[in-house]
Write a structure and sequence with these properties.
- With about 190 residues, this protein is mainly alpha-helical.
- The chain has one domain (about 1-190).
- Helices cover about 85% and strands about 0% of the residues.
- The protein is built from nine helices and no strands.
- The protein has helices at about 1-15, 20-30, 40-45, 50-75, 80-90, 90-115, 120-130, 135-160, 160-190.
- Helix 4 crosses helix 5, helix 4 (about 50-75) packs across helix 7 (about 120-130) and helix 4 packs antiparallel against helix 8.
- The longest helix is centred in the last third of the chain and has 32 residues, at about 160-190.
- The termini are far apart.
């Protein structure tokens, strides 16, 4: 099933409707869709490198709007929609474990989910479920998603097709390490200072 969905998205990336599709996938991925928008973003930027910033901006804004939908799922429809989605992704145990952690580190959690391959939708739904501060949720989502999509698009703009292989294989790991180091630095400053 995922392979068919992947192939369909690749065909869509080459169509004239690709920007609309990118916006739709970015929106959906932040709340319920299993495939990240990078699957469309990468071939679109490779095909039209001059539009890298526009595609990154479209991806970021659509993703943040989709994050609000995930937040609404958590806030208004958790029992009817949120719980089945978490079950579908096998994330119930992770979801419960996050409740305690979220009290202190929720903003960082959203940031990590926004820039890494961690399923961002889990955090958007969770944020709504626990009533996480909407202003902080918005700011962290914009910064995190913007960072992720502008890095991917910018690398493709500057280095073209050769960087595509690196992005597809290793960028998730690199962004995860960056987020861990960034947060580790702030934690170290808190406890050492």
């Amino acid at each position: 099933m995922l392979r068919k969905l992947y192939d369909w998205l690749m065909d869509l990336a080459a169509s004239p409707n690709a920007p609309w599709a990118l916006a739709a996938v970015s929106f959906a991925e932040s709340s319920f869709f299993p495939i990240p928008p990078d699957i469309l973003l990468i071939p679109m930027v490779v095909a039209r490198r001059a539009l890298w910033w526009l595609y990154a901006l479209l991806c970021t804004l659509s993703s943040v709007i989709g994050a609000y939908f995930g937040y609404l799922i958590g806030a208004l429809l958790f029992q009817a929609i949120g719980q089945p989605l978490l079950h579908f992704y096998g994330a119930e145990a992770a979801f419960e474990g996050l409740k305690v952690w979220y009290d202190q580190w929720g903003g960082w959690g959203i940031f990590i989910g926004a820039v890494t391959p961690f399923p961002y939708k889990v955090l958007t739904i969770f944020s709504g479920t626990v009533g996480f501060d909407l202003l902080l949720f918005t700011l962290v989502s914009i910064v995190g998603r913007g960072l992720r999509f502008f890095i991917v698009s910018g690398l493709l703009y500057w280095f073209g097709e050769p960087i595509r292989v690196f992005i597809e294989k290793r960028l998730g790991l690199m962004l995860t390490l960056f987020a861990i180091l960034l947060i580790g630095g702030f934690v170290a400053l808190k406890y050492l200072g």
